[in-house]
Amino acid sequence: MSIERLLQAQKQENRDIIQSLLDDGSEADAEYTIEHHFSSTNFDRLEKAAVDAFKLGFEVNDAEEVELDDGSLIFCFDAIAYHQLEAELLDKACEQLLQLAVKHKVDYDGWGTYYIGDELEDEDDEEQD
What we know:
Blueprint: H1 3-23, E1 32-40, H2 43-55, E2 59-60, E3 64-67, E4 73-83, H3 87-104, E5 107-112, H4 119-128
Antiparallel strand pairs: 1-4, 1-5, 2-4, 3-4
Helix pairs in contact: 1-3, 2-3
């Protein structure tokens, strides 16, 4: 698939994820931890991708080795950003990171975040009882 098609698919997925989070009651104006996922069977390539992601301004965690169901090993890391769930910000980041993945011949596996909603309010209510 061409990078243009990958980017179009990612942009649609960005909107779907944002809408799902908001539909579930996640806060629209909160700052989210956005984790962009990378993987590769080649550690050296992945390490170069991590350096470039850092240069783009992302926080980068240490690479981890993961054993797949078939017994093979891959390496993975997250490039992390902190911002609101804004499609334009996510689209820009995904475009940069997809290009980075193509450049280094590693896999960009999309992004994820955590629900931010009223679970903290519920905990506060329980503590007050």
